[in-house]
């Protein structure tokens, strides 16, 4: 069975994104609240539909929920843009897109604290090829998102509301 690598090393950062240390995924996701950076890419098509990934049941955080099209951790020694491009390629096979920076903010749950760096891009749907890291994905209209908000991760609900994406 697949599972997240609890020994993967993440940078620990301050709220400005400056690296102040390092910790494993297990430490960061185990209730320590060590602030670690992540990237989110909201992928739209020309019609304004939003692509969401379905998180696999084996994920350690928010399994079986619908989430940002691309979301992932910044690896220790990697910068935010490098992580964004890597994650977009790994998760959706996206290599040619123009990311637009939206904002960075701190998101805290009962298990972790993340410095989220949010971006958006408009792509051709034929360029989206979900990898086996995901449990598939699909395009959503604004109405479908509103009708199914309980199926979305808290992070995604937060960003849909505060970033006025839809």
Q: Any overview of this molecule?
A:
The chain is α+β, with helices and mostly antiparallel strands and 166 residues long. The strands form two sheets. Strands 3, 4, 5, 6, 7, 8 and 9 form a seven-stranded mixed beta sheet that branches. It has helices at 25-28, 80-92, 142-147, 154-162; strands spanning 9-13, 19-24, 35-44, 50-54, 66-68, 70-73, 100-108, 113-122, 137-140. It has one domain: Nucleoside Triphosphate Pyrophosphohydrolase, CATH 3.90.79. Strand 3 (35-44) and strand 4 form a beta hairpin. It is 19% helix and 34% strand. The mean pLDDT is 93. It contains four helices and nine strands; from the N terminus they run E-E-H-E-E-E-E-H-E-E-E-H-H.
- Tell me roughly what share of residues is in helical segments: 10-25%
Shape: globular
Main sheet: strands, sense, barrel: 7 strands, mixed
Strand tally: 9
Radius of gyration: 15 Å
- Class of secondary structure makeup: alpha+beta
CATH level-4 homologous superfamily: Nucleoside Triphosphate Pyrophosphohydrolase
- The arrangement of helices and strands along the chain is EEHEEEEHEEEHH
């Amino acid at each position: 069975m697949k599972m997240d690598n609890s020994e993967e090393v993440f940078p620990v950062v301050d709220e400005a994104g400056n690296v102040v240390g390092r910790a494993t995924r297990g430490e960061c996701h185990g209730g320590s609240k060590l602030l670690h950076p992540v990237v989110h890419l909201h992928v739209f098509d020309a019609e304004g539909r939003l692509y969401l990934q379905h998180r696999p049941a084996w994920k350690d955080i928010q399994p079986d929920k619908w989430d940002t099209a691309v979301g992932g951790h910044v690896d220790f020694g990697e910068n935010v843009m490098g992580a964004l491009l890597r994650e977009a390629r790994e998760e959706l096979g996206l290599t040619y897109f123009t990311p637009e920076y939206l904002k960075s903010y701190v998101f805290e749950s009962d298990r972790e604290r993340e410095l989220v760096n949010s971006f958006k891009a408009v792509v051709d749907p034929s360029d989206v090829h979900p990898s086996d890291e995901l449990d598939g994905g699909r395009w959503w209209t604004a109405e479908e998102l509103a009708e199914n908000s309980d199926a979305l991760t808290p992070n995604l609900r937060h960003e849909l509301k505060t970033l006025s994406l839809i």
